[in-house]
Amino acid sequence: MLRFTLERLVGMAITMLLVSMMVFIIMEIPPGDYADRYAFRKYSGTGVNVTDADVQAIREDLGLDKPMVLRYVDWIGGIVLRGDFGQAFAFETSVVKVIGDKVWLTTGILFATLILTYLISIPIGIYAAVRRGSMVDYGLTIFSYLGLALPNFLLALVMLYFANRWFGSDIGGLFSAEYRDAPWSLARLWDMLKHLWLPAVVLAWSAVAYQIQTVRATMSDELNKLSVTAARARGVPEGRLLIKYPARLAVNPIVSTIGFDVNRIFSELPIVAVVLGLTELGELLLKAYLDLDMNVAGAILLLLTFAIVFMNFLSDLLLAWLDPRIKLGA
Question: Where are the alpha helices (DSSP H) in the chain?
Fold first, then answer.
């Protein structure tokens, strides 16, 4: 298991190195750079004639005149050695200060969504497989189709409407008005947790529907295996039998798609965040691209990608623990 873990760690490091190169290339793709945007904002409407030499002077002052390779080495070196993602030009401060709180808020939404997804889908999927062909099974199938057909942002709008109609309150955002700009404290953390359920439910909606059918299908296959029949013939209690044999293997596809679920959440989060008034990295990423503040955009892309790669690494370890054949190469 130690060798398996070390191999996956090396693979994750190589993947992140390649990803960092791709992210930096993406940062270089938009035409122009922040020097052009800075000159336009500073001198637009002033009647001052800005020359190419003026823009070049700004570029040199910001360190954007260096060759691409040198800028990449400085950028990735600062991240690895000092945890420094560079200067956020549009905010006139460091990238770490700009994305600090938003990283933790986005991470909180992510893990709340994942936990809710698996806590609901795994037991319900197992129950549907055991009661296959029953009215409950048909009802869960209809729910799954509805979950896959109804967009998450539309569910968010519906929930906001009924919350306002029935309770006369706004359940959007992650904080109450008195805690929105307050420093972190236990009271502010508790207030965030009380608001976190809504984005978690909205983002988990389609994932729960999909994973219920996944668990149901794999559990149904495992229930027909000879090992289950033999255990039942030996008199193993039904509850223990289900957990020890079919259920343990039925969750393998769920574990293997954790990285996919993380990617899906990050893809759906920006539009859901707009509807619910959330403060997260998606909105900041869009603003950074519009401002050509590529240090901020690159840091967000790198962090989001790292989250996906790291969750894939964890899913590999969980799969190896659930099914020893994986780490043995079987």
Answer: 2-28, 34-43, 52-62, 68-82, 95-130, 135-149, 152-167, 186-223, 226-233, 238-242, 248-250, 252-256, 258-276, 281-290, 294-322
Average of pLDDT values for 201-206?
Answer: 86
pLDDT attached to residue 330: 47
The per-residue DSSP string of 15-57 comes to HHHHHHHHHHHHHH-SSS-HHHHHHHHHHTTTT----HHHHHH
Cα–Cα distance between 201 and 19 in angstroms, integer? 31
Q: Please name the residue that has the structure tokens 């954790």.
A: 258
Span 8-49, pLDDT tens digits? 888 888 998 898 888 888 777 777 677 777 776 666 656 666
Cα dist. 37→33, 44, 133 in Å?
7, 10, 62
Assessment of whether the complete model's pTM goes beyond 0.85: no
Alpha-carbon gap, residue 272 to 58, rounded angstroms: 38
Which residues 6+ apart lie within 8 Å of 215 measured at CB?
121, 122, 124, 125, 126, 128, 129, 250, 251, 253, 254
> What distance in Å separates the CA atoms of residue 23 and residue 18, rounded to the nearest whole number?
9
Q: Is 293 left (phi over 0), alpha (psi -120 to 50) or beta?
A: beta
- Give the CA distances from residue 188 to residues 143, 177, 180, 193, in Å, rounded to whole numbers and listed in that order: 35, 11, 8, 9
- Burial class from Cβ neighbours inside 10 Å (0-12, 13-18, 19+) for residue 250 reads buried
Instruction: Round the average pLDDT of the chain to a whole number and report it.
Output: 79
Q: What per-residue string of b and e applies to 199-232 under the rule 16 or more CB within 10 Å gives b?
A: bbbbbbbbbbbbbbbbbbebbbebbeeeebeebe
